[in-house]
Amino acid sequence: MDNKKSIKRALKKRALGYDSTEVTEEYTEDGDGGVKLIKRKVVKKNVPPDVSAVKLLIEMEGESSDVSNMTDGELELEKQRLLKLLDKEKK
């Protein structure tokens, strides 16, 4: 797998937002010198879409010649448009 595709896939994931699972485990020493699991915590987290990742994708794809001149409203509309495109590609 080439690096450019990996970077683009990671950017798309960040631009769309994603869910992640974090597992924390605590261990203690048992009487026989071994290790015993005493506590396991699983937390599901949602990472929201990132506007900077969307902007970078726009630049990489060449879909917009200059986003620096866009207003906040125009950037938000472009973000929503790209999120819809990415969502279709995701499915």
Keywords:
2 strands; 48% helix; elongated
Short description:
The chain has 91 residues and is α+β, with helices and mostly antiparallel strands. 48% of the residues lie in helices and 27% in strands. The protein has helices at residues 3-16, 51-61, 72-90, and strands at residues 18-29, 35-47.
Walk me through this protein's architecture.
This protein has 91 residues and is of the alpha+beta class. It contains 3 helices and 2 strands. A two-stranded antiparallel ribbon has the order 1-2. Helix 1 crosses helix 2 and helix 2 packs across helix 3. 5% of the residues are buried.
Side-by-side strand order of the widest sheet:
1-2
Strand content: 25-35%
Which class do the helix and strand fractions yield?
A: alpha+beta
Radius of gyration: 20 Å
Uncertain stretches of 5 or more adjacent residues: none
User: N-to-C terminal Cα separation, in Å?
Assistant: 21 Å
Biggest sheet details? 2 strands, antiparallel
For the residues shown, what is the average pLDDT?
85
Percentage of helical residues?
40-55%
What's the helix count? 3
Question: Which descriptor suits the 3D outline?
Answer: elongated
- Total E-strand runs: 2
Q: Write down the secondary-structure element order.
A: HEEHH
Topology:
Layout lengths: L2 H14 L1 E12 L5 E13 L3 H11 L10 H19 L1
Antiparallel strand pairs: 1-2
